[in-house]
Design brief:
Length: about 180
């Protein structure tokens, strides 16, 4: 990491966003654990790929907040800091609207999303695909793996080819796991 990058990270205030994300602690995941941990994992994935954009990192911490807690007081986000409005807009970009099917949602990000929304969605899916190894609902796993290949690969291709490589590897290992675990 470059010294300039470390200085940018040094002055980044993530704690208020982490605190908001704790509202997701009670939201369970199919793989176990809770949605708060998934937010932290998505942040870690972005940092693993070298992303240090403050708006992107802050949004990663609360990217599922509005979708999973629709009644959440959005003003709490907007009051945090000078970047809060940009963070909020990015979170809205990656939030599935009630009128959207999952396919329409992913197509919207692919076709009309900002670069940051595509990167965030790719990191989100990497986290989800890793935890998918703990899901025992075989039909869900099959659908999710296929959706990743059909709908998220094109997003990752636009966002970050390195993430696409990881997603392809995760799809392959999940399919191998399905074949071994469920003899399909």
């Amino acid at each position: 990491m470059e010294i300039d990058d470390m200085l940018r990270l040094k002055d980044m205030y993530l704690a208020p966003y982490i605190q908001l994300a704790t509202a997701l602690i009670g939201k369970p995941r199919r793989s176990g654990g809770n949605m708060f941990r998934h937010q932290i994992d998505t942040l870690g994935t972005l940092m693993d790929y070298g992303y240090i954009d403050s708006v992107l990192l802050k949004a990663s911490l609360i990217h599922d907040l509005l979708e999973d807690i629709p009644e959440f007081n959005r003003d709490l986000i907007l009051e945090i800091d000078s970047e809060a409005a940009d963070v909020y807009r990015l979170v809205l970009e990656v939030t599935r609207r009630p009128i959207e099917t999952k396919q329409e949602f992913l197509e919207r990000i692919r076709d009309f999303g900002s670069d940051k929304s595509r990167v965030l969605k790719s990191a989100d899916r990497i986290s989800n695909m890793i935890s998918l190894g703990y899901v025992t609902d075989i039909d869900f796993v099959r659908r999710y793996v296929q959706e990743t290949e059909d709908q998220v690969f094109p997003i990752a291709e636009l966002a970050d080819p390195r993430m696409l490589v990881e997603l392809k590897s995760l799809v392959a290992t999940r399919r191998e796991s399905l074949a071994r675990r469920f003899e399909i």
